[in-house]
Write a structure and sequence with these properties.
By secondary structure, the protein is α+β, with helices and mostly antiparallel strands. The chain is built from 3 helices and 4 strands; from the N terminus they run αβααβββ. The chain has one domain (3-111). The radius of gyration is 14 Å and the shape is globular.
Length: 112
């Protein structure tokens, strides 16, 4: 697989993780997000699932693994990390879903 195809595949898998919680990966949230009202948490999840504001600032490697936005006055970051299937080490190949577990973490900006 060429580098371009590898990056495109990683972006595709990250989009699946982001838009289909539980299907393409595991979603986690920090204590700061958990402390917010459930209605705000729901808005945050929807904003992540529909996120499309890709730029060189938030996606320099074109993998679609990070985003930032503001919901109800809260600055939110989300980040996808790539782990091996045991969730112990970094994935040996983030483009290969058979050896990779994606974890999307929702956090307040000051928790980053």
């Amino acid at each position: 697989m060429t580098q371009h195809h590898t990056v495109a595949r990683i972006a595709q898998l990250n989009d699946l993780c982001r838009t289909a919680p539980g299907l393409g990966g595991t979603w986690m949230m920090t204590q700061g997000i958990e402390a917010l009202p459930v209605t705000v948490q729901s808005k945050i999840r929807e904003a992540v699932e529909t996120f499309s504001d890709w730029s060189e600032d938030n996606d320099p490697w074109h993998e679609r693994d990070f985003g930032a936005f503001t919901i109800d006055g809260h600055d939110i970051y989300w980040k996808i990390d790539y782990f091996d299937t045991a969730l112990t080490y970094h994935s040996p190949d983030p483009a290969d879903p058979t050896v990779t577990r994606r974890v999307l973490t929702l956090m307040l900006r000051d928790e980053y």
